[in-house]
Amino acid sequence: MSLAASSPGAQGKSGRPFPFPVELLGLLGLGLLWWLLTLPAVTGNPFLEQFSPGAALPALTRLLAEGTLWEHLLVSLKRVMVGLGLAFVIGAPLGLLVGSSRLLERATEPAFQLLRMISPLSWMPLAVMVLGVGDAPIYLLLALAGLWPILFAAAGGVKNLNASWLDLGRSLSATRGEMFWHITLPGILGSLLQGVRLAIGTLWILLVPCEMLGVRAGLGYFILDTRDRLAYPELMATVVLIGLLGYLLDAAARWLVGRFQGNT
């Protein structure tokens, strides 16, 4: 449930909802702040006008209409999906194991917490030396970034399973496979999806610096390209697009989590 829907500010004094989405107020305020911070009369710097909404939004419309950004956008989305898939394939089973064994959890927690605190970007030079320039090191760095939210979410979900569900399964002589598919997996799915949502946000934030590893496509690469061409309205347009896409990805993940939790 969103804060706007649950808070008194989302309704008028009569209890009826406002006739417009209150979420728009925040976006309008952000747009106004953006405009003010690039206004020469406010900043005294005419150069910043190239990053203004009046310059960036037409550039974004043009780049999308020309198809210039579509290739970079699709390449970036592919990298995020591959990185997320690798993180899930590794993190979910490992999290299930850790959450199922108190001894294994105690043995691995210090090492996992230490590794989690190392920025994936710290591994960038080593990844390039081992895997070379291209998509492979990007996949590795994104997978490392998404691994920990998924692993800890899976482990936490197993630890917080309702004990009565497990007792019921044992009383019915359920096999290990039946316990997993009918009790454990449905019981941890909400936590696991929350971990996936956190992983998506982490991967999307990390994507741009990862795409500055010498690849020839992607939104991060395009930002460097616009900088080198001094095409600052296009640079700001790409930044806006990254924000919009990140918002949509998170909204899709929130919808998925809410849909599952609403059915449980």
TrEMBL record:
Subcellular locations according to the entry: Cell membrane
CDD domains documented for this protein: TM_PBP2
Recorded topology in the membrane: Multi-pass membrane protein
GO biological process: one example: cellular response to sulfur starvation
Membrane-spanning ranges: 20-37, 80-99, 111-132, 138-158, 202-223, 235-257
Entry annotated with the keyword Ligase: no
DNA-binding as UniProt keyword: no
GO cellular component entries: plasma membrane
UniProt keyword annotations, A-Z: Cell membrane, Membrane, Plasmid, Transmembrane, Transmembrane helix, Transport
Database matches in InterPro entries: MetI-like, MetI-like_sf
Domain ABC transmembrane type-1: 73-253
Similarity field: Belongs to the binding-protein-dependent transport system permease family.
Stated name of the protein: ABC-type transporter, integral membrane subunit
Record organism: Deinococcus proteolyticus (strain ATCC 35074 / DSM 20540 / JCM 6276 / NBRC 101906 / NCIMB 13154 / VKM Ac-1939 / CCM 2703 / MRP)
